[in-house]
Amino acid sequence: MDVLSRPVIDRTLPLLTEGYAWLPNRMRDSSGPVVRTRILGRPALALRGPEAVRFFYDERNVHRHRAIPEPVLGTLFGREAVHNLDGAAHRARKAVFLPLLAPERVAGLVEEVTAAWDEAVPAWSRRCAVVLFDEAAVVLTRGGHRWAGVPLADGDAPATARDMIAMVDGFASAGPRHLRARGRQEDRLTRLVREVRAGTVTAPEGSVLARVCGHRDADGELLDEKTAAVELLNVVRPAAAVAWFVAFLAHALHRHPEHRVPLGDGDAAFATVFTHEVRRFYPFVPFLGGLAARDLMWRGEWVPAGGLVLLDVYGQNHDELLWGDPYAFRPRRFLGRPAGRDELIPQGGGDPATGHRCPGEGLTVGVLEALAARLARMEYTVPEQNLTIPLHRVPTRPRSGLLMADVR
Ligand code: HEM
Known about the structure:
Blueprint: H1 12-18, H2 22-29, E1 34-39, E2 42-47, H3 50-56, E3 62-63, H4 70-77, H5 87-100, H6 106-125, E4 129-131, H7 132-148, H8 157-169, H9 176-198, H10 208-214, H11 225-255, H12 260-264, H13 268-281, E5 288-292, E6 296-298, E7 301-303, E8 308-311, H14 313-316, H15 320-323, H16 361-377, E9 403-405
Parallel strand pairs: 2-8
Antiparallel strand pairs: 1-2, 3-5, 4-9, 5-8, 6-7
Helix pairs in contact: 6-7, 6-16, 7-8, 7-11, 8-9, 8-11, 9-11, 10-11, 11-16, 13-16
The structure holds protoporphyrin IX containing FE.
Protein name: Fatty-acid peroxygenase
Keywords: Heme, Iron, Metal-binding, Monooxygenase, Oxidoreductase
Cofactor: heme
């Protein structure tokens, strides 16, 4: 019998109904931090823990090409995206991003996003109430575009933000709304790439736009217009997606108001650990997937070449062995005990320079630190609303989107 059709029961349905809890539930029933299962018609091996991270990010073990299911590739990343490449092709494409998203670029994005935030707040205070998630998406879309050098008329920011959010929101359940959003944004950015190359639009020197338009891939050729547009989108879309964490910041401040004081006082070390705890505690990426490059054995469990290998991101960020009392929100757990590279993995593990780990992690942390301080200083009330965060929905967020009233 073909190994890919061995009779292990397919678990795609429980995955869809249990969401973030699916792998942690299976891990609880297993003897070690490893589970053999079957999803999407393939055998799968799910792992977690720092050693598992190193195993997962070793290209001799796990490949990405053709690993991401079509609905996710089609709506979230784009078929031509860096996420879907391996080996030399991946390293050449990743070279576009690394200098653009490096530590010295963080301040520039923080400046643009906080400026967009400060411009937006007076309008929030003129309304009875605002949904923070929606407003943060507009702020991050404006700030992200300005920083990347991608033109965006002020009046177009709300509709563009809705498209950015729809692409991320549809990653597990792509439908026409999500596909139309991607189509619109890819068309807009494809036209922009054409205009920059034709010299009718000027890309600011050193900007993300200039670099992506001028980048040559492993074959020495310029990226075709569509691929360049997809990679531009792979910067401005995740910048908008930081809105999920902004809603979680406000949720954490509402549940634990004692953290307002150090944040509002500008305690930089506390802002960093608060941000880490928000990214650890709240659910965003459930797991990451790749394909076994050869027959693989991990902790006594086996998966054949071509089977799925899943890294249990949410489970690892809530692993009792790593964090102790993992379901308690305690930012100070990171004070004096910085998180190891392969321990805290809300944006992937390993080395972003050589593997697929998110190259935007430093930017995300920088923006969240700055916005956490602004939220802590802002005056607002949190009216009666549904603040539950359903774990079966991927990606999830507080049901109300975090309604804030009387903003000052
Ligand atoms: C909400 C905040 C963010 C989250 C949760 C997030 C999460 C992730 C994850 C899980 C990956 C894949 C890791 C892997 O496959 O091993 C990734 C990759 C990536 N992220 Fe982020 N990210 C965020 C923000 C950003 C930002 C702000 C940028 C850029 C401005 C960015 C750019 C990228 C790129 C280009 C990749 C592809 C890397 C590759 O395949 O080599 N991300 N991100």
